[in-house]
Write a structure and sequence with these properties.
The protein is of the alpha/beta class. The chain has helices at about 5-10, 40-45, 60-70, 85-95, 110-120, 135-140, 165-175, 185-190, 225-240, 245-255, 255-275, 295-300, 315-325, 355-360, 380-395, and strands at about 75-80, 100-105, 125-130, 145-155, 180, 200-205, 220, 280-285, 310-315, 330, 340-345, 370. The protein folds into 2 domains: about 5-255, 3-Layer(aba) Sandwich (Aspartate Aminotransferase, domain 2), CATH 3.40.640.10; about 260-405, Aspartate Aminotransferase, domain 1, CATH 3.90.1150. α4 crosses α9 (about 225-240).
């Protein structure tokens, strides 16, 4: 639907004429699709006749979601998966064989880090991490003759690194390998990597696309040949198909995506500005702030910075946990990208298994808080944060020098 705008496509693209029609895409809660006769079954299997075969490979509801995502990400096709991680795994499994290599930014979601670090060696393949992904020369130096793709997550979770997509795309083209962009945090409402030169886009649709923490999902958007290959030789044998109900929930999310992203961006800017000025905050990582080192990359490639940020409290572990426990509206959970504002304390939850030394290397201090700003009323968010800042002093006896930012004994 090239002639239509983003919001029209987010509501209409990929619609198939179901009979009888319905205002919302029907949920085909079925794993198989009875054939008229044996001749029709054979023709569907050879591809001579369009039709559906088995729920692990195709489903009419999931197909609408795939077509809509392809339209929004400007690709020929897309294949949905059970989760973001299974989408990234399906793509990796399809493109990489024993002896091959992947070059990736090291600022990626922990699951992706594990897949490349542990999963690739299990496949007899390897990863070359780019530890200073701001440098295009560092990317170029990491590429080997067996490198099958470049992988970048931008903005990255949780460090908020922003890549220069056109520069990376030019490098990938010069080496004749695809550039894969994880576009989970911005979504196509704010950033369209294919228009910036990337070749393949992946998502955890679990986050902003679904938008209310109700359904896991993932998707790979790319050229038809690639998507056909993953369908024929990946999802068919490996099995992580998206459930029809989850496709329906994700389709509902897409209808309001751009509206929600605008509000996420607005609220995030208000909150980041408030936090940056707050006397109890050391620093805020949010690319929308002018003080952010990646700020100059925003305008050329993004319509907005989305709503993921992190900030460090002046204090230590106890101050951070007390702050989180004092929040009233803002939810404490391991998630991001939903209507509800969510805080996560990496040192006590998502990253605690790393231990203090590795956490420090990854820039995770005991008082670092990850924050996904929702779409509530901005004043209520500021008031909630203010009372939680006040509660730190009231309830916590500060034993140590605050500037030490120490981990508790358990670490
Ligand atoms: C940027 C990014 N990519 C991929 C994933 C994995 O997605 P899922 O949880 O849907 O498997 C996540 C999850 O947090 C993420 O933040």
């Amino acid at each position: 639907m090239p002639k239509y705008g983003f919001n029209t496509k987010a509501i209409h693209a990929g619609n198939t004429s179901f009979q009888p029609d319905s205002m919302s895409t029907p949920i085909y809660q079925s794993v198989a699709y009875p054939y008229l006769d044996a001749k029709e079954a054979a023709a569907i299997f050879t591809g001579e006749k369009p039709g559906y075969t088995y729920g692990r490979w195709d489903n009419p509801t999931v197909e609408v979601f795939e077509k809509r995502m392809a339209a929004l990400e400007n690709t020929e096709a897309a294949i949905a998966a059970a989760s973001g991680m299974s989408a990234i795994f399906l793509l990796t499994h399809h493109l990489v064989a024993a002896g091959d290599n992947v070059v990736s930014s090291n600022r990626v979601y922990g699951g992706t880090f594990g897949l490349f670090n542990v999963g690739l060696p299990k496949m007899g393949a390897s990863v070359n991490w780019v530890t200073n992904p701001e440098s295009i020369d560092a990317w170029a130096a990491a590429i080997t003759p067996r490198t099958k793709f470049l992988f970048v997550e931008t903005p990255s979770n949780p460090s908020l690194f922003i890549a220069d997509i056109p520069a990376l795309a030019a490098l990938a083209k010069s080496k004749k390998i695809p550039l894969v962009v994880d576009n989970t945090i911005t979504t196509p409402a704010l950033q369209q990597p294919i228009l910036l030169g990337a070749d393949i886009v992946v998502h955890s649709t679990t986050k902003y696309i679904c938008g209310n923490a109700t359904a896991l999902g993932g998707i790979v958007c790319g050229p038809q040949e690639l998507i056909n290959g993953i369908r024929q030789n990946g999802i068919r044998y490996l099995g992580p198909a998206m459930a029809p109900f989850n496709a329906w929930l994700n389709l509902n999310g897409l209808e309001t995506l751009a509206l929600r992203m605008d509000r996420h961006c607005h609220n995030a800017m208000v909150v980041a500005t408030f936090l940056e000025k707050h006397p109890k905050v050391n620093f805020v990582n949010y690319p929308g702030l002018e003080s952010n080192p990646y700020h100059h990359l925003i305008k050329p490639q993004m319509k907005g910075c989305s709503s993921l940020m992190s900030f460090e409290l002046k204090g230590a572990y106890e101050q951070a946990t007390r702050f989180i426990d004092s929040l009233a509206i803002i939810t404490h959970a391991t998630h991001l990208g939903t209507a509800k504002s969510i805080v996560t304390h990496p040192a006590s939850t998502t990253h605690s298994a790393m231990g203090e030394v590795e956490m420090r290397k990854a820039g995770i201090s005991p008082s670092l808080i990850r924050f996904s700003i929702g779409i509530e009323d901005e004043n209520d968010l500021i008031n909630d944060l203010s009372q939680a800042f006040d509660a730190i002093d009231k309830e916590v006896k500060v034993k140590d020098d605050l500037s030490a930012n120490t981990f508790p004994q358990a670490y």
